[in-house]
Amino acid sequence: MKKIILLCLLASDSAFSSKHDHEKFFLEAIKIGNQVQEQTKGKSLAEKLPIIENFAKEYTDSPVALDIIMQDLGVQYSFAGLHKKVLIAKDSSAENETLALEDLTNYKVKSAESEILKRSQLHQIVMFNEAHDIAQHRVLTYRMLSGLWKQGYRYFAAESLNSSASSQVNKGYVTNNIGYYTRESTYANLVLKAKEIGFEIISYDLHKPSKLDTIDERETNSALTIKEKVFDKDPDAKIIIHVGYSHINEEEWLASKLKSFTSLETLTIDQTTRIERSNTEFEHPTYTKAVKEVRLQEPFVFVKGSEVWSSDSSKWDISIFWPRTSYLYGRPKWASLDRVYYNVTTNDCKNTYPCMVDVFKFNHKNEVPLDRVLILSKSDQKSVFLSQGDNIIVTTESNGNQINKIKVKN
After folding, report:
1. Is 187:159 a contact under the CB 8 Å cutoff?
2. Cα distance between residue 180 and residue 184, in whole Å
3. 177-234 pLDDT tens trace
4. How many CB atoms are located within 10 Å of the residue 313 CB?
């Protein structure tokens, strides 16, 4: 598992990828990863967070180490449903850069979903990327599933899934064992919805033996696995692939390898380059200007004629802009996935804080909750989201001991 996470970090487009030597980063990541793993072993998520926060304070003067720690901390915050803290963690090691404002004057604003569907009809492969700590990026793929199914897309693949994922999802819920990032509730909902619609779930990453431990080998093996599992059996197949960061890169990453093995052009969609930050001083000026002027409360793109704007057209086809996050009852509106809110009260937590609130479908052992949020104090008022049918709300104290359990029908 640790090897997978490190490779995912190396594949990211975050600050360290350009600032630090990959070999130095990799060695430092192993060192810090061992230390964090040793101190957090057997701990609940609520217990892990302050431990990793203390590591960050310890390594404040080490840019490489701080990058690694804050990325891990951001992912853990996302698991806990703490999006504001994710953004702060993401920017804690960011540098102020002088970036040029791109001229989008002659472009029109369009709904990202409608423009993607217009273009996906001409493709057999659509790839969406994400920043692994930004659960919001999973929401667009979630929203696109039904429309792409209507166009004949029948396979759903995701970087995070391991080889046993498909059989475990058949149980009607996602377990902690099917992958790492799928332990986050939005990701679990994405996989479950794909399965419920009828998509065949495909896992592909790190399935073949690795000899070189290089990114090129990983991308080549991933493309070969997808080809063997999907296109060798069904040449006319249409597949959605949800990946992290650079894997959509059409120059040398997974998208380019797929083209070389299948001769198919991939529709590549980037969500990681023009994004909201915790402070506008860390944002790309094009994003800051766009969300100030555009009134759409959904992901949007810029279109001129038949062209959709891309932040790097040599690497990906479409750049997505998400409006700045708005919150309701302490939670990002985009995280609701059209579910209803349930306001957590002091009675739910029995005045015990921090209080982890999980919403389960079955409450089976090792089941990933369909929503989760960590409430840090009595004044930290938050809500959770309820799916249709029965919802089991379980609250636990920081050590994982159960405080309360109720069943709520929606």
Report:
1. no
2. 8
3. 999 999 999 999 999 999 999 999 999 998 888 888 888 999 999 999 999 999 999 9
4. 13
